Structures are given as structure tokens and as C-alpha cells.
Amino acid sequence: MAKEWKHWHKTFTNFLAECGSRAPDKYRTLINYVSHNVYEYIEDCTDYDSALEVLNQLFIRKPNEISARHLLATRRQKPGETLVEFIQELRRLSKDCNLKSVTAEQYREELIRDSFINGLLSPLIRQRLLENSTLDLKSAFDQASALDLAQKNAETYTMPTIPTPTAAAVSVTEQTSKAAAFNDDAPLAGTFTSKKCYFCGNSIHNRRNCPARNCVCDSCGKRGHYAKVCRSKAPTVASIFSPSLCAIVASCPESLKQASVMVSIGNKPLTALVDSGSSDSYISESMAKHLDLHFHPSTQDVSMALSSLKSHVVGHCYVDIVLNEHMYPSCRLGILKDLCSDIILGQDFQKEHKSVIIEYGGSKPELMIPKSTPVCALSAASVEEPSLFANLRPDCKPIASKSRRFSKEDHDFIQQEVNQLLSEGIIEPSNSPWRAQVVVVKDPLNRHKKRLCIDYSQTVNQYTELDAYPLPRIDDMINNLASYKFFSTFDLKSAYHQVPIKEADQKYTAFEANGRLYQFQRVPFGVTNGVAVFQRAMDKFVDEEGLKDTFPYLDNITVAGRDQEEHDENVQKFHDAISRRNLTLNETKSVESKSSINLLGYGIEHGVITPDPERLRPLQEFPPPENARTLQRVVGMFAYYAKWIPHFSDKIKPLMKAVTFPLDSDALAAFNTLKKELGNAALQHVDESLPFVVECDASEVALSATLNQAGRPVAFMTRMLHGSELHYPAVEKEAMAIVEAVRKWQHFLARRHFTLKTDQRSVAFMFDSRKRTKIKNNKIQAWRLELGSFSYTVEYRPGKDNVAPDSFTRAFSASMSSNNLEEIHIGLCHPGVTRMLHFVKSKNLPYSTEEVKKVCSACRSCAELKPQFYRPQQPGNLIKATQPMERLSIDFKGPLPTATRNAYILTVVDEYSRFPFAFPCPNMQSSTVIMCLNQLFSLCGMPNYIHSDLGTSFLSRELKDYLTKRGIATSRTTPYHPIGNGQVERYNGIIWKAVRLALRSANLPDSRWELVLADAIHSIRSLLCTSTNATPHERFFNFHRRSSYGVSLPSWMQPGPVLLRRFVRTSKNDPLVDEVELTDVNPTYARVRYADGRESSVSLRDLAACPPSSIQNGTPLEPQPSQEPLPTSDGFPPTPNSTTLQVPEIQSQADNAEHELLTKETGLRRSTRVSKPPARYGFGGAGAIVEGPVIGVIVDYYGWSGAFYFMVFLSILASLSLLKGSQDDMT
Prior knowledge:
Blueprint: H1 2-19, H2 26-33, H3 36-42, H4 48-59, H5 65-74, H6 83-94, H7 104-118, H8 123-130, H9 137-158, H10 167-182, H11 243-251, E1 260-265, E2 268-274, E3 282-284, H12 285-290, E4 296-297, E5 301-303, E6 310-312, E7 315-323, E8 326-336, E9 343-345, H13 347-350, H14 408-423, E10 427-429, E11 436-442, E12 450-455, H15 474-481, E13 486-491, E14 511-513, E15 516-520, H16 530-545, E16 550-553, E17 556-561, H17 564-580, E18 591-594, E19 597-599, E20 602-605, E21 608-611, H18 617-620, H19 628-640, H20 648-656, H21 665-682, E22 692-698, E23 702-709, E24 712-720, H22 730-744, H23 746-749, E25 754-758, H24 761-766, H25 778-786, E26 792-796, H26 803-813, H27 821-827, H28 833-842, H29 849-858, H30 860-865, E27 887-893, E28 904-910, E29 916-921, H31 926-940, E30 945-948, H32 952-955, H33 957-965, E31 969-972, H34 982-1001, H35 1013-1022, H36 1032-1037, E32 1056-1061, E33 1073-1081, E34 1085-1089, E35 1095-1099, E36 1103-1104, E37 1111-1112, E38 1115-1116, H37 1139-1162, H38 1189-1215, H39 1223-1226
Parallel strand pairs: 2-9, 3-8, 11-14, 22-25, 25-26, 27-30, 30-31
Antiparallel strand pairs: 1-2, 3-9, 4-7, 5-6, 7-8, 10-15, 11-12, 13-17, 13-18, 14-15, 16-17, 19-20, 20-21, 22-23, 23-24, 27-28, 28-29, 32-33, 32-36, 33-34, 34-35, 37-38
Protein name: RNA-directed DNA polymerase
GO biological process, one term: proteolysis
GO molecular function, one term: aspartic-type endopeptidase activity
């Protein structure tokens, strides 16, 4: 009612506000708009304000803080409730909790109080505590203790008078307990709605339509009304029992009291009987009606201990059960009449625990029932026995495959599985001439679980022709299901093993296990036509039983309905049919009464069909290329699917023109557009008449595959390798990619011939089903066995042609370059691994954890100034601050080597945020401390507390009076215990180490520490503090600190030589770029100086890196001492004679080094033979006139033809006697 009143009052005030100056009288208007029932409460009021106060008191109840917090803490997600609805409900409940800022001790007391109330076993005591509007921990404990003592005293009086449980006593007390439990649903007095029905409590309606017309009241036993509106007096026997005691006596006989526990469903306390002899869990019908649970119809019969006694299950429901503060969501409970307890918890509930202990108090030791083979076996279905081997080839002859050896562990597992199959009647001993071998493999869904498989690929499968019985077309089935509104899906347990086979076919299924020969009596897994036989049996089952709106697809059966009633009727008929045919369902995989389901790679709702998002997830997560090689692969992948992308040539152009990384905006937009277009092609209709092609690939760390039809992509798959999978050899990784792809898309590939393509020739040979290959690798042998039930052709394709899957594996496993990471490490004053990694992730820089560790461990400065010495752990507790500027720690660092008069650093650390302040000081006097604190207080305000050591400047009367006048408390450490001020002592070391590391990087002496102090403090404030898991700046100011290293500019974009695009070129032979000097740069533009001294602003897109001249073999040279010549008398250095030849020589060496580096990266094989120019035209070899790097430069730039004409030109000059001087001068 509070929500309705608030909304009505808001609309009323909005109406008055809209009227403005013409608004009518508020009180008279209010009377006109309220109903006559509400007017009774305000008829004595004389004005609007008093009437509004009465209505607020009437409809708005004062929130109960204790009860609101209990409801918030115990609220659980309900079945069918979405996460959005759940979080909104939690937010609504939190409004009445009166949450406010408290100290840590108060918060601790409130937390203990709430846990104390929620954890009480007695619902009566909890209810009495929740009646208090406010309650502290001590009052709650005292009140609960008094109630607990009173309850125990009452039980001592009532226990001797409890009669022996009889049917009459149970029924009387059961009615009493239920009446007491459900009387809280009485209607409220003042409402805006119409009158309530006298019989059901709902809105008024015709008696003939009343749902309570034929119901029996659980309170008085009379027909025609519900218990919540019953006006009969409750039996007086309820008054002498406490509610908790009454519930136990009513719901469970005294002889079963030891096995009874209190549970709750929807905050309603109930009694549950733990019954180890019951296979399922049940709830009484009357209790299910009181809880208003949704019934699912059922016709199952339950057999009692005496086989002649049976009880009918009227239905089942799904509820959330709370037992001992543990939530058991969506428990399936059968609904039975006349249960001796509210709930029976059977073996299906108890199996969730390792063991269930019930204390009886006997004198003998504990009785442990060992786990044994279950008595209840998987029964054979009552279906016609299919012919499994009707399509054997005429040349069929028995094959007895060679026996295999197994480890002791596998031997025991095989024997256990064989015993299980024998006890269930699935297999029997055999005298067959056929003999297949068993294989122990890992379960594909649980790698820690084993499975027993039979390898029929070497025996009967070689002579079995394919049964052409079709599977249902997935597209037709999905389209038909989309016309329904409600769905249920059922999964058959060990489906093949429920279908019996003809006796004549059993000999072909013979297999050897631990030296014995067995054969199947039911359809085994792994035979060629098992899928066709089983699908034929399911289709025949649906037709013979006349099941409507039922769609079987192998062991998955979907039942649908156009409305809830039709759906429930169809589900009921399906349950009746499987009960008659003796089929067994896997309840854990069955889902009932849903408005949407995921089936066979599609999401299905009424009138809506969406593809499974997993089909496109790898494509959507495909990262942009980070280097030229990755870009080449990406372009190749898009070109592979070019015919499915409209206007492909136009859309790929920006990506093909990309030369810088990360990609610019145009190239990145083209990349995302192509991904979207390719995804749209994959989302088109899957034509099952076209053959499927599975293309697979594997890298060192990832697997990938694509599913295609006539060249069009249908689905994509990628998976990272984990754990031991990373150490598999390349052959096993390639084979694993094939198996993972077939597992993922088996609903598309089953019963259809498809093609497998791999770039591993050995895998193609081993997986070829036409070859009887002897495989000694256990993994590949098990995988080949898993593929044995599929019809496929495997093809080898070279890696260069395996474009699409190769692009996915390389993209997801590409490693990032760490060229600039060392510069960031130095620029941040050499942080450690943790803070460095936090900075990298916060700025989204492309570096991995291993690269950060590698750079930090390889830093010589860090190794010298931050050696990792052994430090034993010394536990200690620090008084914790609750907000910034609450507690400050101060201390001096020094004396330090200095070039100025400041030889000390006053360090101040905020204990809450670890935010440091550092003040250079000339001395350690109290006046200096006061001066520094004045600067700090004027900026950040006054703290509550200052902690220091026993320094004389901190003990002086002058400083104490200064702090006392400002209301700042002080404390000091004890003598000889600097750990008492450990936080600031620690930061003294951190700051000084950061300063020295910055000095080392700048090649400055320690005496110049004041020059880098600001940078060191900036880095410490900006980097992660591992104690708080946040940066000091974020914790102090509650926003991110701006850093110059967070701008994504290339490292070469700094003042110095760069290459600028030449926009005006007279011919195509002119250089593409000019070398200029970069003087200033920002994230968009740069300022450059040309060779003639002109300056101009240019776009960053027109700049390129200018390689340094000090690079040899791809490695930067060590800096050499300056050897510049002395200036001449005119002030300019002399010009060397060989300047013209030195620059090309250095450039040639750099080009050769770059060429060698690229050759190593691409893995190309080059000849090591040195090419020499021919000796022609009487020169006696090119070296006779021009030697050394000149020929190399000419060949590199103009080719051998250019070198030839250059040599001819030199010969003409020589013949004309125009060349003078020595050969050295000419060179």
C-alpha cells in the first residue's frame, strides 16, 4: 500500500503544480478524489496538511531496520527470476536498512548482530528479535537468551504430556502448525482497491468463478474457502505448544525425530525428514498449495518398501531450499499426498554431500555403509529390436584384433565398468569369432574422468555400409519449433544402451576386456550405423505413441506447446509414453516449461530464431593486426572469403595501405567493417543439402577451426591451450584441433559426409579411416576412435593455403613487442614487477606479464640498487586509518650528499592512502618542521593525528604547542623500535631508491637529488601500492592521476631527426621523404625544422621514424666518447675529406643489418655466397678503380645496371686524363 499511496500522492501534487496560480483548494480537492473508505480517516481534519499527515501515518509504515536487514541478507534469487530483477529487488530492500557511515567497530557490531539473528535455529526467537525497530548486539543477545530459556522451560512442561503419535493427533497439530504458519497473509485495512472475496481473499468476483469453491480449508477442514481467510477459531491445543515444538510433532512422528531437520522455503520454516531409503525427494501436497508452488503434472507411481504398496505422484515442482544456512537452488520435489513430514529429502538431495551423518546416541561405534554397485539398473526399453548390421558387405569375414596391455589403474577401471554393464544386462559373455579391443579415454567434458570405449574401426565397421536413414533437418525442426510459446527438452540417459538389438547382431559387437570376451545385448557406442538405428527407433516411438508437438533429435527430445495448457498436456502424454516404453530420462539435463531454449546451435523463442553466439565469438574477438606479418595474414583470411563480402576490393584498400601500427582510424574502420560483413555471411541460413568442410589449425598456444559450406563460413572456433596441453607435440595439437572442432559441431556433422582439412600431413594419414594404421600414440588412437562414428574424408593442405584457421590461431597467440617497455620502466623511476604491471594494464599497453618480469629482472640499475635480499616475515598490526588526512606519519631522511644547502628530506605519509610528501630541508629543527607542515596544511587541511619517532625536533615544546593549538593529537614510537613508525621509514627508503634510480638514468651524481625529487614523488604517487591495491593518488583524491607516459605516441616521436613525407615530386625516382628535425610534438601535430632553417607544423600522419646511425647487426651500439675536432680559427670545425663516402657506408651497413634482421624474422633461406661485379671492358675488375662500400651503395640503390654505367663513366674520365690523384683520393 505504501507504493500505491506514494504514487497517488505524487500524481496529485503534480496535478496541483500544473494548475499553477489557478490551483483549487488542496483540502477540498483531496476529499473529492479519495474513496469513501479513505474519507473516514480524514473527515475530522480541518486542513490539507493535517489530512496529509493522517494519510501518511495510515499508509506509510515506519521501516523496521532490523527486519529490513534480515530480508536483505536472506533474499535469494527465485526460479525464473532474471539477474536484473534480482538486483533491483535487492536495491529496493536496501532502502529500509537505514545504512549510514559508521566506524569500523560499529560496523563490526552490526555485522555480528545481523549474522546472529540470521543464524538462529529457532524461528520464534528470530521473529521476536525482528519485531524491534532498532537493536544493538548486546540487547539482541540478552533478549534471545531470555526467549531461549523460556522456550526450554516450556518444553520441559509439555514433553511429558505429548501423546503417542496417531493419525488424529498428527492431523490436529498439523492443522494448528499450518494455521500458525500462514496467518500472516491477512488483508490490510485501508486500501484503494475494491472489496475482497469472502472465500479466497482475492478481488471480488462471481461465486461460481471463485477458485476456492471446491477447496477444503486446511485450518478448519470445511469446504469452500481458503485457510488464509478462515474465521474459525484455531484448536486450543496449539496454545500449549511453542511453534517450533508444534511443527516437529505435527510434521513428523516422534520415532523419526532424530532424522528430522528444519529447512526453509521462501522464508517459511518447514520440517524435513532425511530418508536414505527414498530415491527422490518429495513435498506434501497441502504444503505445496500453501506455498503456492507451480505444479508440473506427473503420472509416476512410487513403490514403498512393501512392493504391493504404491502411491501416486500428483506432480513435481522446483524450489530453493535453505538448510543450515546453505542454499540448494532449484531442487526437484515430487508432490505426494498425506506425507508424515512436510518434506522428505531423498538420495537425490543427499548425494550432493560426501556423507550425511545422523546422530542416534547409541553405544556402539559408527556404522559406515560402503559404496557398492547400485541395485537399480538401466532397464531395456520396450521398443522393436532394430537390425544394426543389415548392411554388411558380401566380403565380410570375422576379425579378431590383437590384444592390448593396460596399466594396473586402467585394468581396475575396465573391470569396474564391465561389472557395471553386466549387472545392468547391457553386455553378456560371448563365444563370437569377432573381437574388438577396449580403449580407456578421457571424458571430453571432464578431463579428470575416464570413459570405456570399444574400437570397432578395426573390426566390423570396415565391412559396414552406411545406413542412409536421415536425421531430422535442423533448419526445418528449428522453424517448426519457433511457432510455439513453451518448450521442454528431455535427455535420455545412456540412450543407446536402452535400445535392445537382435540376437543375430550381437556377435558382431564382441570385444575383449581383461582377458574375457563379451558382447552387447543393446546398441553399443562406436558402431557405424548406431546413430541411424537409434534415430529410427525414436521416430517410430513418437509415431506409435501418437505424441503431438514432439521433436526427437537422437537422445534429445523437445516437447512444445502453443500455450501453457497445451504444453503441459503434451508433456504429460510424453511422460506416460516413456513410462509405458520403460525409457529412462536424465533428469539433470532435462528442462521443463521454458519460454526460450538453446537447441542445436540456435536460440529459439516464439517467432524468434537467433544463431548461437558461440558460432561468431572467435570472429568478434579477433584482434586488429599489430605488425606487418599479422596484417598479411589478416588480409589473406579476408581474401579467402572475398566472394562472400560485397565490394570487397573497395573495403580492403585502407587495410592494405596500412604501414604504421597500431592501425590508423581508416584502417581500423576497414578491419571492423570486414569482420562485420564476414559475420553477416556466416549468419545466413545453413543449407544442409551442401557438404560441410572443416578446416583446422593449431599453434603453440591455441587451436582454431572454421566450418564452411561451398566456401561460405558457417561457424568459427578458437580455444586457448591450458596446462599440460601446452606441452603437447605439434602433431597432437593439430589432431586435437580436429577433434575439438568435430565435438563442437557434431550436430551439423552427424550422419553427413564431410571433409576435414589440416596442414599436418601425418595427422591426415593417421585419421584416414581408409587406412588400417597402427597408431602407438594413445591420445591420437583415442581421438581416432572418437571420430569412428563419423563419415568423413581427411585431406592434407599446405600451411600457406590454410589461410583462415591459421589467421585465427596466430592472432590469438601473437606476442607483443617489448621494445619500448624498458624506456617506460626507466621513465617511471624503475618500479618493481607489481607496480609496473599495474601501470601497463591501467594504460592498456600491449605488454604481457612475462615481458614485464623480463624487463624488471634484466635492469642492471634495479639489480644494483634494489637487490632482492632475504627478509623474514615479521607479522605486525598497524592501526588503520579510515579516510585521507586522518593519520599522518613523519620522519627525516638524511644527511644526504647535496650541492645546495638542503641536506635533509622531511617525509610525510598519509597512512590511509600511502600518499607521500617530501620537503627538502636545510636542517632538522622544529621551526623547519613547522614551516613544512604549514605548507601541507594549507594545501590539504588539518589531520586528526600525527605519529613520529623520538627525534628531538618532534619532541620539542614548540612543535607540540603548534599541533595542540590546531587540535592535532600526537604519538611517538618506543625507544629502539623504529618499526613503530615503519610506514614512513619504509617510504624513506622507497623515495631515496627512486631518486637514485632516476639519477642513474640521467647520469647525474647523488648530490643533485633535488633535481629529480619531484619526478620520483610523482611516480610513487602514480604507481600501485600493493598494500591498498590502488595508487596513492586514486585513494587520496578519488580520481586517476594524469601521466605523461599514458599518451599513445611512438617512442621515436621526440625532438631529433625524423622523416617527412615529400608531397611534391618531379618524377617517380625522387625520394619519398626528406629528413627534418622534430622540435615539438603533441598527440595531433608536430613542429619541424627543414634543412634551410624554415619551420612548419605538420600532421603526425606524414612523419616516419628515422633510424639511428649507430646500429650494427640490429643491436644499438654503446655510446662512444665524443671525438669532435677542435674548431678552426673561424669558429667552425674542419670538414673531413671523406665525408661523401662515410654516410653511404654507414647507411649501407644499417640496411644490411635491417635486411639480416628481416630475414631472421621471416625465416627465409638465403645463399651466403657474395656476389661480385664482373670484370669487363679492360678494367681488371671493378675494384681496380672503385672499391669498398661505393660499389655496394650503387648496387643497392641502382642495381647492377646502374653500377655498370657508373664504371663506364669512370673509364671515360680516365681515358680523357681527367682523373687526377691517387686511388685513395678517388675512393
